[in-house]
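This section describes the prediction task in plain terms. A model, or a person checking by hand, is given the sequence of a single protein chain and must write out its three-dimensional structure as a string of tokens. No templates, partner chains or ligands are provided. The sample shown here is typical of the held-out split.
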Amino acid sequence: MATGASCYYHPAAGRGNPSSPSLGLRPSQSKVVFTSGGGGGSRWWMRRRRGEGMTSRGSISISRARARPALFSPVAMEWQECSAEIEVDVPCSVAYQCYSERETIPQWMPFISTVEVLEDKPDLSRWTLKYAILGQDVEFSWLARNMTPTKNQKIHWRSLEGLPNRGAVRFFPKSPSSCRVQLTVAYEVPEILNPVASALKPFLEGLLFNGLERFVAYAKQQYSKTLKS
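The expected answer:
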């Protein structure tokens, strides 16, 4: 039986060099908390702690003690990129509009639980992911910012807090009434999932493709409504 768990990310300010040229990703040194819902109530965490200097003043000189070492050494997380694409029998403009309505995404992307667009800042949205990943129930959340889109061609975003991730959806016309949709998502693999990182990518790419298949049905339904109106 799978054990319920939650993973929370709190990115630190420190950033490294980009590790994904296609999306300009930067690995961050993060605080990661993993809690297990098992009977033992076990808890795992990794955090970076800054050394604290100590200063004492004498009548002649000032001395500074060495900073105390961190409890845990910071771990550079691994970034992983997943992609999927599909053809849709609707015009690019229709597919683009359907994908632009972020709060409807959970209707066709089953592992996305909720998407809430902030009323005062419509370019920002809060996302929650809940799913059983390789036998482990996990939950992630993040605040994302939609970057400036290219109408009917590209929607892209990046997270500001929570699970570090970013991605893009691109729309390529095939004919006046059809297009190809390409979804690319990159994320920082949680430390707790590093042992299964190699199996994680094909698993998540399968989820993305299944979501796009549902998107095809959703977009066709929306297009049919516009033709009837």
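For orientation: The two ends are 49 Å apart (CA to CA).
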